[in-house]
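Let us practice reading a record.
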Amino acid sequence: MLENIWVIPAVTFASFWLILAFGKRLPKHGAEIGIAALALVFVLSSVAVFQWNDRPATEVVEPAGHGASTAEVGEDEGHALGEVRALAAEAAVEAEGGEHEVEPIRQAVERNVTWFSFGDVEVQVGTAVDGLAVVLLFTVTLISLLVHVFSTNYMHGDVRFTYFFAALSLFTTGMLLLVVSSSLLQALFGWELMGLCSFMLIGHWWEKKPNSDAAMKAFLTTRTGDIGLVVGIVIMFFAAGQTFDIGVINEMALSGAMGETALLVGAAALFIGVIGKSAQFPLHTWLPDAMAGPTPVSALIHAATMVVAGVYLVARLYGVFWEAFDIEAGGINPIAAIGGITILIAAALAFVQTDIKKVLAYSTVSQLGYMVMALGVGAWTAGIFHLFTHAFFKGLLFLGAGSVSHAVHSFEMKDD
């Protein structure tokens, strides 16, 4: 399964087209296609998790300066996370003056093909699967499956029921494509696909002006951040020797092969994209307004797609941010500072809301700040663990809020 992980986003993409083509002719108006597809990809993701856990560790990393080499890297040089951990371990050893033993690291499973070439440059696309990818695959597919099931009753009778489920499948496809991508160019397609689908889903009831305004605000705000993302990708492409390969970019950043200026400017530009997508200060204002969309959309955006994409990008390109912002040295850097500011501002704003969905929205912004700050201070594992746990409790909170509103016909907590 790990070598054929491309099947997972392919299934949800196929379900999108099947729902559009045949959804209105089916008894459940296409919901059965979406649910069946998500159930299948959840099973495949679970298989991938077990296969990854059974995969032998073939890359051993030991901290330098203690009678060992800095790293023993296998054929797959695309997995730079092991080197980041080695650097962090070495820093801990130097600070504590003791010995530290780093566990063996499993090599990422990569599969790439040449998409097109111009001159001497080959642009490749493919998949890369490691521990980070399988965690996100499991989380995204499970939460999306539950949201699909919940939506069958919540959206019952909606005039655009079929198109809603088609958009949900395409939305999930965008996140899955981002997670398994081995190249920044391919990841950008998944990133922008989510942006397009969020616009359609937030503005699903576009007849109401607040809904259409919220969709437009979300679209334009995230596109503002995406300008930085595109600039960052272009800088990384040239700084890494004209390649979009994420593994190579991480490797070159960690080895010092990139120019310091290009690395710093590129990382800063990429982080602007993260700020927009993950609703960090000062581009956080779009997320609370996005609650105008149907509750299942809110659950999916907040729990497993869209907003966690920015956190995932930092974690996936951690070698770049580690070196560019000198995370190893400790102290305050742009990632930690923005995350910390977002935590405080969003938590304070949540206290003065009376709409239950807006309270949860500001809670999400604050929790995303925790994830970003954790990555900014070198707590990679803690940040990803919080992403994993947050997906489940926040998804449950939003679906619970949707059930309450469905019964009392209001999100206002002050209503009797």
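A brief commentary: The chain is about 65% helix and 5% strand.
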